[in-house]
Design brief:
The structure is a single chain. The protein has 686 residues and is of the alpha/beta class. It folds into three domains: 126 residues, no CATH class; 305 residues, no CATH class; 153 residues, Histidine kinase-like ATPase, C-terminal domain (Heat Shock Protein 90), CATH 3.30.565. The chain is 49% helix and 16% strand. Strand 10 and strand 11 form a beta hairpin. The longest helix is centred in the middle third of the chain and has 90 residues. The chain is rod-shaped and about 185 Å long. The chain starts with a helix and ends with a strand. InterPro entries: CHASE2 (IPR007890), HATPase_C_sf (IPR036890), HATPase_dom (IPR003594), His_kinase_dom (IPR005467), HisK_dim/P_dom (IPR003661), HisK_dim/P_sf (IPR036097), Sig_transdc_His_kin-like_C (IPR004358). Its EC number is 2.7.13.3. This is histidine kinase.
Length: 686
């Protein structure tokens, strides 16, 4: 069995090692399914504990449904946007980030209308006219102010960045361009607007499951690094003339904007820590155009302008479960950077998570090999709780994202394999044990059948010996009585003065004992032929008194006085008279022999009768002998067990068999005077 169990444990250990290697391979290769699983785990953390930190510096200007209803469909004429931005910039905000791209000229400008309408141009040819361009008006409105326009990478046909307004970027410690999102095309703004503003990429790219979690801070457009809308906004409000990038092993480590450092850049693609509700100060563009706002609403604030009207704006699902417009997502990303509340996932976490997986695997291997199912279950629970506590603590106290999804799944797999293989092994072990037991049982039966023939002869001889011993034991008492009475008659005949009345009682007793011996033989014969003995209603007290008298008569002239305590109201019992005499004789004789083993003057033998609470006649025979040891009590009623040198060991065994055949019981107890008390019960006669 030990070899079988060792092989099973070794086989399971091999399976667990293979699973561990597979999980490590998945961790290293990091396929899309594993990434989505990890990201969904991080989403759970944000849902349970969303971001509560919020800055008061950001104000959102929304081109919403009310604004479209008042000013017409989108896109608006650039002169309307010029009026809107004039009202905003007139309050001296720290920066105005416009989350809109203007890649084409405004075709509603009067000059373009005339240019595109020859008939109208001919009619106006004789009149002097200097019709304005709405694009020029809009550019004039933005010129000289801290304004950032959006750009879209991956769209359009232009393969170069706006060189004239590209922010100066300096790299330290290595070239990070290979690690940035790379695009071949960029959708730029018109030339008039590029010259008077700075630009940043405002792309929002959700992941394959439709949720946006990370936002690139820098982009690589054909070798040129372009900052995002957020980074360019941060550069302007910090009066930085350049963006300093610190790299380590050609991987972005830090972004420095004058005195502002962005260390939680996560290689230029930080994790946004979302709030459930966007509680920033919001104002409708229509309210600004109609002048119904506070004149200091935008002073020293960061203003983000964008479209939020349904059907025009893009709404994206966030990890906290809410759909936010692009304007609100940019606001939350910028808020995270200003309040240093971006989520962090350092590159070292990969190695820590890999080491943690190895630790789980080793612990399970050791516990499975050395302990049982209970210890494996405890280990499973401990490792699960440890994974949850480690991940949640890092998220709450450090805003760090530690992946617990793979450790939890791996722990579950190891637990299931350990328990299931243990169960299968146990079942196989039991089946093997049952097979071996069956084989042994068959071999045992074969050996028994082989020995049966050898034992038949011995059993027959033993039966004859037992029967002979039983007959000799039963006839011993009447023959001894006949012998004693015959000797007494001989002594009477030897006397000269023969008295008939003297010898007659002795001869009657001889005849009575002879009849008793004959009855004993008849009883044994009937029992041998039919298996039953004749039962009748008997006066138990009378039988006891007769047996005492017979015992005294057969004691070779030696008188032995026995005390009695017989219940006068004792009902008749059911028994066989001859066999009951034999039982009483055996017990009385054993009691007498026991008293002879101790030399004392106060010996007594007491016989008592009563009706016990169970409705049985109970007879007790007590002596003042040495008593019995526990070992003697244990074997006392077994055939051929005796404590006397000349004993056959059959008297008590036969007596118990007789009593039990009548429905009674025979047992022995210690008494208060140090001897033994034999008790037996007989059923009442109904």
């Amino acid at each position: 069995m030990l070899t079988f169990a060792t092989k099973a444990v070794s086989k399971t250990t091999t399976i667990l090692v293979v699973v561990l290697l597979c999980v490590i391979a998945l961790k290293v290769s990091d396929p899309w399914a594993i990434r989505i699983l990890r990201h969904n785990t991080f989403d759970v953390f944000q849902k349970i504990n969303p971001n509560q930190t919020r800055t008061e510096e950001i104000v959102l200007v929304e081109i919403d449904e009310t604004s479209l209803k008042a000013k017409g469909q989108w896109p608006w004429q650039r002169n309307i946007l010029a009026e809107l931005t004039d009202n905003i910039l007139g309050q001296s905000p720290r920066a105005l980030a416009i989350d809109i791209v203007f890649p084409e000229l405004d075709r509603t400008s009067p000059s373009l209308i005339i240019e595109n309408n020859p008939a109208l141009a001919r009619q106006l040819k004789l009149h002097k006219h200097n019709l304005p361009s709405y694009d020029d008006i809009f550019a004039s409105s933005l010129q000289g102010h801290p304004v950032i326009l959006g750009m879209a990478t991956g769209y359009g046909t232009d393969q170069r960045a706006p060189i004239e307004t590209t922010t100066s970027i300096t790299m330290y410690g290595g070239d990070v361009r290979s690690t940035l999102p790379r695009f071949n095309y960029v959708l730029r703004n018109i030339e008039q607007l590029e010259k008077v503003t700075t630009q940043g990429v405002n792309n929002l790219a959700a992941e394959r499951d439709g949720i946006i979690r990370q936002l690139p801070l820098l982009y690589n457009v054909n070798g040129t690094i372009i900052p995002s809308l957020e980074i360019e906004t941060l550069r302007l409000i910090n009066d930085a003339t350049e963006i300093k990038l610190t790299a380590e092993n050609n991987k972005l480590k830090n972004i420095e904007l004058n005195s502002f450092n962005l260390a939680k850049s996560n290689r230029g693609k930080p994790w946004i820590y979302f709030s459930k509700n966007s509680d920033y100060s919001k104002v409708s563009a229509n309210d600004i155009l109609t002048g119904t706002i506070n004149n200091t609403l935008f002073r020293d604030k960061i203003v983000i302008l964008g479209v939020t009207a349904l059907g025009i704006a893009d709404y994206t699902l966030t990890p906290v479960g809410s759909n936010l417009s692009g304007l609100e997502i940019h606001a939350q990303a910028l808020d995270n950077m200003l309040t240093n509340s971006l989520l962090e996932r350092p590159s070292s976490f990969f190695w820590i998570e890999l080491s943690y997986l190895l630790l789980i695997g080793i612990i399970f291997l050791v516990v499975h090999k050395r302990h049982g199912a209970l210890e494996v279950t405890v280990t499973f629970a401990v490792m699960c709780w440890a994974s949850v506590l480690i991940s949640s603590s890092l998220f709450v106290f450090r805003s760090a994202l530690f992946d617990l999804s793979l450790p939890l799944i791996f722990t579950l797999i190891m637990f299931v394999i350990s328990v299931s293989t243990g169960f299968v092994t146990e079942q196989a072990r039991r089946r093997k044990e049952a097979k071996i037991a069956t084989q042994k049982e068959r071999e045992k039966e074969a050996r028994i059948r082989k020995l049966q023939n050898e034992l038949l002869h011995t059993i027959g001889k033993s039966s004859v010996q037992k029967l002979s011993s039983s007959i000799a034991h039963e006839l011993n008492q009447p023959l001894a009585a006949i012998y004693n009475f015959t000797n007494a008659a001989k002594k009477i005949l030897d006397k000269d003065n023969l008295d008939q009345e003297t010898i007659k009682p002795v001869l009657e007793k001889i005849l009575k004992q002879a009849d008793r011996g004959n009855e004993i033989l008849r009883t044994i014969r009937d029992a041998a032929e039919t298996g039953k003995s004749h039962l009748s209603a008997l006066n138990i007290n009378k039988i006891i008194l007769e047996e005492i008298e017979l015992f005294n008569d057969s004691s070779l002239g030696e008188k032995f006085y026995i005390k009695t305590d017989l219940s006068l109201e004792l009902p008749n019992g059911t028994a066989n008279e001859i066999q009951l005499h034999q039982v009483l004789l055996n017990l009385i004789r054993n009691a007498k022999q026991a008293t002879e083993e101790i030399d004392r003057n106060d010996h007594e033998l007491l016989i008592s009768t009563r009706e016990n609470p169970k409705g049985m006649i109970e007879v007790a025979i007590s002596d003042t002998g040495p008593g019995l040891t526990p070992d003697q009590k244990k074997d006392l009623f077994k055939p051929f067990f005796t404590t006397k040198e000349q004993g056959t060991g059959l008297g008590l065994a036969i007596s118990r068999s007789i009593i039990e055949a009548w429905g009674g019981n025979l047992w022995v107890e210690d008494n208060k005077k140090g001897g033994a008390t034999f008790k037996f019960t007989l059923p009442l006669n109904h």
